[in-house]
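tool_call: predict_structure(chain=1)
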Amino acid sequence: MARAAADRQLAPAASRTRDGIAVARRDDDADLRALLRRVETPGSVGVAFTREPDYFRGEGLAGALDQTVVFRTEGALSGMARLSIQSLHRNGLPQSIGYLGELRLAPEAPRRPRILRDGFELLRSAVVEHGVSGCYTSIAADNARARSVLEHGRRLGLPSYLPLAELVTLLVPVGRSGRAERREPRGASVDRDELTSFLSRHARAAQLAPTWDAARW
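tool_result:
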């Protein structure tokens, strides 16, 4: 399982440099996890999305092609970003779509547009190589800093971001206290081909829904 996921990773497109931007490598693991723990998404509720105990264990999930870039200043990891490419539905047809996520900058990192431009340019090579037809991302509604930079990034030489939809999702369960009652799922016999056909049929009607086939299972 781990081998298969590793084989699907995007090949590094740049060599390691002590300072500047490069594709993440295995020896960046501890620094990547530390940065994710330290940097919370701004807003009325600060949340840190961590990747413990191994950042690279999440590579290749559900057949995704993943590439993470890192930015170092004086040897210290100051920033990161991640591109995940999957086969998703767009206007009813399967297409190669990229998700841009895990954009993090350490509080002490320099706020220079060139850093973002260089990071996007490094990820562009993977976008071109794998025929990606478009990319999307998600930004918390009250993350004013990210929205002001990314949604108006063309003036800084960044890719164009256009609003697609609003999403409300459960982040932290509230209300009922105490441990939730555990219920064992009822056994059911499922025909995989039938389930694949059902999921594929309904996914075509939803934008950015994953394609379903034997490879994804």
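agent: Helices lie at 2-7, 29-38, 113-129, 144-150, 192-203. Proceeding to next step.
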